Amino acid sequence: MIVTGGGDCPGLNAVIRAIVKRASQEKDWEVLGSIQAFNGVLWEPSELKVLTPEVVKGIHFQGGTIIETTNKGGPFAWPVKNKDGSYSSIDRSDEMIRKIQYLGIDAVISIGGDGSQRISQLLYEKGLNVIGVPKTIDNDLSSTDSTFGFQTAVEIATEAVDKLVTTAASHNRVFVVEVMGRYAGWIALNAAVAGGAEVCLIPEFPYDINIVKEKLESRFHRGRGFAVVVVSEGAKPKDGEMVFEKSSEVGYENLRLGGISRSLIKQLKQAGFEPDMRETVLGHLQRGGIPIAYDRVLSAQFGVKAFDMVLKGDFGKMVAYRHPYFVSVPLKEAIAQPNFVTLDNALVHTAQGLGISLGIDIPNTSK
C-alpha cells in the first residue's frame, strides 16, 4: 500500500507510477493507494484505490498526487469533535495497524517528509512493515543528498527572480521575493545564486537590518538603481522571531509561516531606506505544477528502490540518494538530524564570492 502524506510536491505521481510499474513485473503483487495518507484506512468505510499500470499511465509529469494527501491529524492524533464543539485528538494507530493486517496488506510505502517519516518510525516500532520515501521541497533531510520536488521548487523560484529583475530595473525598485523552506534556507539560497539576487535571507542566519540596508543602498545612485532580495519564509532578524500565525484548521499543528517579505520592507523603511519596495510571495506555486526532468528521474529511482526494499523485507528504513547510489537507511537515522545551511557550506561560499549579502558579517576566507 502507498500513502502520500504532508504537503504536496512535484514528483509524487512519478514515485507512485514507478512503484506500480516495478511491482507489475513481479507475480502476485497488487498495489493499493490509501486516499489522503492514512485517512483512507482509518475512514469508515475505508477508501483505498487499486493502482494498476493502466491507472498510473502518463501520470509521471503531473503535479500533485492521484491518491491525495493531508498534513492534518494522522493515526497518532486523530481529530475528534467534542460535544461543546471543540476538538481533541486520540491515538488510533493500533486500530489502524490491525485493519491493515486484516486487509492482508504486506507492506506500506510512506512517501513524505520529516513529519511523515516520524510517523513511519512510530508505526514500525509498533510492528508495521513500512518503508519511507523522502519527499520535501525544503530539502531538509540530512540522510539523503537530495529530495524530489526540491529542484522544481528552486526552478520556479528562480524563474520568479528572473522576471522580477526586469520590472525592478524598469521602475528603480527593490523587489522582495518570499519563498518556502520553513526552517531550512536551501530554496532561497539556490534561487538567489541562480537568479542573481543581491540579498538572500534564510532561517539559519538571523539578519542585521542595517547590513541589509547598506547592501541595498550600494545598488542605488541618486535614487536610481534596482535590487532583488530573496527571503525564506522562516527568516528572522537578530533578536527577533519568525513571522507566523497559529492555524485554526482542525488537526494542523505546524505554524503557518508567511509575511516576512512585508515585515522586512517595513523594517527597511524604519531604518531609513528610501527607494520604492514591493513584495512578491510565491507560496504554493512552488509546490504545484509539472516536475522538472531531474525530479522525475529522481522520483522514478526512489520508487523502484522502494519496491526492491519491499521484496527484500528491508522494513523500518527509508530510501536515500547518496550519489551515485540509492541506499536504504534506518528511519531513525533519517529523521535524527535536519539538513540546514551552515556557514561552511560551498554554496554559502559561492554566494559570498558573488557579493550576495546574507544579512550578516561573514569573514571573507577566499583572500
Element order: H for helix, E for strand? EHEHEEEHEHEHEHEHEEEEEHEHEEHH
Sheet with the most strands? 5 strands, mixed
| Uncertain runs | none
Please state the CA-atom Rg, rounded to the nearest Å: 22 Å
Strand content: 15-25%
Roughly how much helix do the residues carry, as a percent range?
25-40%
Number of domains: 2
Cα shape? elongated
**Number of helices, where a helix is a run of at least 4 consecutive DSSP H or I residues:** 11
Structural class: alpha/beta
CATH class of the largest domain: Alpha Beta
Span between N and C termini? 55 Å
CATH A-level architecture of the largest domain: 3-Layer(aba) Sandwich
- Would you give the CATH topology of the largest domain? Rossmann fold
Please report the total strand number as a whole number.
17
Mean pLDDT: 94
Major sheet: order of its strands? 1-6-7-16-17
Describe what you observe in this structure.
With 367 residues, the chain is α/β, with parallel strands linked by helices. It folds into two domains: 2-148 and 291-334, 3-Layer(aba) Sandwich (Rossmann fold), CATH 3.40.50.450; 151-287 and 342-353, Phosphofructokinase domain (Rossmann fold). 33% of the residues lie in helices and 19% in strands. It has helices spanning 12-23, 39-42, 93-102, 114-125, 150-171, 186-195, 209-217, 260-270, 293-312, 331-334, 346-353, and strands at 2-4, 31-34, 48-51, 78-81, 87-90, 108-112, 130-134, 174-179, 199-201, 220-221, 224-225, 227-232, 244-246, 255-257, 277-281, 317-322, 325-330. Strand 4 (78-81) and strand 5 form a beta hairpin. It is elongated. 47% of the residues are buried.
